[in-house]
Every structure is written in structure tokens, then in C-alpha cells.
Design a protein that fits this description.
Blueprint: E1 13-15, E2 32-36, H1 43-54, E3 57-60, H2 61-69, H3 73-99, E4 104-107, H4 116-124, E5 128-133, H5 136-143, H6 161-175, E6 180-183, H7 189-205
Parallel strand pairs: 2-4, 2-5, 3-4, 5-6
Antiparallel strand pairs: 1-6
Helix pairs in contact: 1-7, 2-3, 3-4
Amino acid sequence: MNHPYAASPHFAISVKVPANRQSGRKESAPRIVALTGFMGAGKTSVGRELAALLGWGFCDLDQEIELQQKLPIREIFQLHGELRFREIEAETLRATLEQASAPTVIALGGGTFIQDRNAELLRRCGAHVVFLETPMKQLLRRCRVATQSSAENLRPLAADPDAFRELYAQRLPHYRAAQITVRTRGKTIEDIARAIASSLEFAAGAR
């Protein structure tokens, strides 16, 4: 599978330094960290905690879209369809990256990093993408797909457990292309944020 980021190993915490970085050139720590993962992985909660830990800014991409469009994500899907939503999502990500004037943690939507154009945008700006790998049972529990009707569900792609699992399986190879993977099982939000911060220091030092 061709993807702008190379696949990373699947350890509890794994870091992959992109091969296209020029050796011998010392760089500062990454100014953009983007959290990816399936719906319910905790990207927003972990993102806020990580930003506070690092003293960086924080942006939730889905919330930014809702703010600009003046509509909940669910209604954007219902009114305009997923294709139009993905266009809006890409435009919002591009603007967010272009306007970032200080180090920023971005919580991506569950499908953002799946789109090649978004992965390319992140690669070009030198972002470190972190995959929050979360057990399926925990994802299902958080999203409550088994108890919410599709009309009430705030997560438009979480229609039922079987579809939920199938969508995750489709997206997983893309998520695993992230440079850093953190397995969240048994970890608190604070634990996960500290693990990411530690991995970022390792990645910066390995360049």
C-alpha cells in the first residue's frame, strides 16, 4: 500500500524516523504533532493532556470543522454526504497547518489520516503522526454503537458493531503508517501523554 508515511512496528510504543530526513542536520523538536486513531480512541482527551504537558497549543480538527461550518459533524454527513465532508476536512486541515504559528498538537478525525492528501499535507509540514491503538472492546464501549440508534449517534460512521469492526479493519493499515504507535490498553490519559512526549524526544534525537 502506497502511503506518504512508512509503516511502523507494532510495539507498545514504537517510533519510526522517516527515511527521507536528511542525516547530519540537527532539527528542533517537531512543531506539529497529530494524533490519529479510530473513533473512541481518545484523541481529543489525550491531545489536550499532551498539549498541556508540552506547553503547546491544541486543536481538535472535528471541533474546528463544526465551528467553521456551524453544523455538527453528524449533520454535515447527513446534509452533504461523506465526500463533501472529506473535502471540508482537507481544507480545514490545510488551513490549520498553514496558520499554526506555534508548536501545536492536533487531534485528527478518525478518517483524516486515511485520506492520502491529508497524510501528504502532514508529511510536508514535518508533522509527527501518532497512532493511538486502542482495543476494539474499548472502542465499542466508548462509542456505544450497540445502544445508540444511527439517528442519535454522534459518530455518523458508527452504525452498528459489525460495520464498526469492518471499518476499523479497513483503516488499520493506514493508522499503522504513523511514525509513532502507542498502545493505550491499561494506560490513563496522563500515561499516554507522557509516553508520546517521551517518544517525541527520542524521534527528535534520532534525526
